[in-house]
Amino acid sequence: MKLKFIMYSCLLALAISCSSDQMTDEDETAVIEEVVMEEEEEVEEEEIVEEGTSSLLMGEFVADAHPTSGTVTINEEKTQLTITGFKSDNGPVLELYIATDTAAKDFITLGVLQGLEGDFVYAIPDGATINFSTYKYVLVWCVDFSINFGHAELK
What is the residue range of 149's domain? Predict the structure, then answer.
């Protein structure tokens, strides 16, 4: 955010210095106001994201059958599972499970894996009724071969 503001400021200074003969005071004021408004909007967006990220449970992915990494969080309302910094190998039909163990003997599917690298958000069906002290593992599961690619233990 600060870097973006500095870049806008430098661009503004460059624009003013390069075209000071052509730019009126009103033009300069309009450019400054636009930069300030964009900065305020960015700050508001960051505040909204920060407010919505309070987490109840958290875990780090570890590799099982394939290299898998990233951080899992579940929000306080137990309605949303967020994965950040995720990375895993590809495989046929990979799904994300919340399970009682790493062998997926008893699990709840959150659906097909949304991607192999990046940040992802999953809705948790009936999250308020899930006992996360029992269902404490998040698995990247290969459905075709019943293989656990990697898991995170929620704490």
Answer: 55-153
